[in-house]
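tmp note - Diguanylate cyclase
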Amino acid sequence: MSKIGDIILKANNELKEKALFPLFSIFVVDIVGTIEKREFLEKLCKSIFNILHSVVGVIVLENEKIVYKYGNFDSEFIDFSLDKIMIKIYHKEISNFEENLLKYILAIAEIHYDNVKKFEIMKENAFFDELTGALTRKAGFEMLSKKFHELKRENKIGTLIFIDLDGLKKVNDLHGHLEGDKLLKEFVYVSKEFIRKGDFVVRLGGDEFVIFVNSEHGDAIVSRIKNHTRANFSWGSVNIPAGFKDIVEAIEKADKKMYKQKILKKYKKQ
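out:
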């Protein structure tokens, strides 16, 4: 039997007042079937509030910031922590029965929260490039497509910048891949420093990136990035939606502009 199964059996055997046990069973099924962190915390708080008559309010804090609150908070409270999550349970006079029931609820929450954390890590790994912290290709295309349709719907203009780092292979060959990795990480870090909330960087793969800027004149950030990174790069930009049928067509156009610049650089060196 699982740890959660053990707790349910123990609760069923120990809690003599059965009126609330069906609600407890529903809570278990509901909470164990939830792996999104915010939904998990909301369900946990509402369950505590609804099952225990003595509870008048619940507050959830993450890194000391309130992320969820329910009820009122002018009475005594019990603290309970889940990793970096702090849950404050405000209550009137609490009976031994409800205290035991709360103990079982929190024990199940603590066990299942490990699954919630694993899912969060898995989701983050799928969303962000492990090396640079930029959005992954898949997540980036989803975000870019969403922005494309959003701009079209709201009749606004954004900028898509296609960037290819110059000479990364040479850096890897001469100085090793660790140095090449440092350059990639530095480029993304610097790029993020010059974009605003709502803008983002996507790593398409290797040394190719796309930066989305929520402005018609977004390519103005390129010179700032160039001045603050060791990475040399070629780039091309387009405004979106600006007549493109979809985000793929816009990326292809920006890619062609970038490639043209790269060819001109090579020609000038000869």
